[in-house]
Amino acid sequence: MIYLIENKEHRNIQSSLEYFLKFNIPKNAKILDVGCNCGSLIYNIYRKGYKNVQGIDINKEAIKIGKREYKLLEKKLKIYDGYKIPFKNESFDVVLMFDVIEHIPSVERFIKEEVYRILRKGGLFIFQTPNKPMNIIFVYIDNNFNPFVKWWEEHCSLQTYWSLKKLLMKSGFKEIKIEKYNILTDYNKEKVKKVAGRVGLVLLNISSKLPIRLSTNLWGFAKK
Predict the structure, then answer these.
(1) What CATH code is carried by the domain that includes residue 70?
(2) 67-91: average pLDDT
(3) Which of 48, 95, 168, 223 makes the best surface tag, with the fewest CB within 10 Å?
(4) Do residues 38 and 11 touch, judged by C-beta distance below 8 A?
(5) Structural domain tally of the chain?
């Protein structure tokens, strides 16, 4: 059973959880979720037996909600400034960033100087982020095809397949894999149906068959 407060998260927690679990990470691993919002993902990870979890976010209200809703995580959710991750070098075995990369203004510096820094040697950086060309299209659909919508204001660091791979390589990661993952989830179907009706569902089905470079989202991992 998935325990979450999805309506306050604005992201697909179930898919993120399923993607994390496929790595079969040891239960004693130290895990940090960067941009955890209310903490629904790490709460679900915690309930799967991973007790060494932490979550950080710049949103004070989200952290407040998480501490209230998830009492087990009350001391594991922290506010941070979005610039400096408040942990020592090589503190974690796994760093998670789902639907976060695209929101970070200086993402190159952040990945190289912060994410890489806090990972132990051999540690995993597991991520998901919208694919730039497809995300721009969906933003316009979401805004009723308004030609003046500023898609870059919220998603200031959107990546393509190649730019993301280059970013990770320049940050020092040695083993990198970027892939597609299932987008035909109840969450995504409901989301596109609400915005574009049956047309949205057709587009979602078509998108699920596109090659990785044209997929809606880029999933993957990088190893230190």
Answers:
(1) 3.40.50.150
(2) 95
(3) 48
(4) no
(5) 1
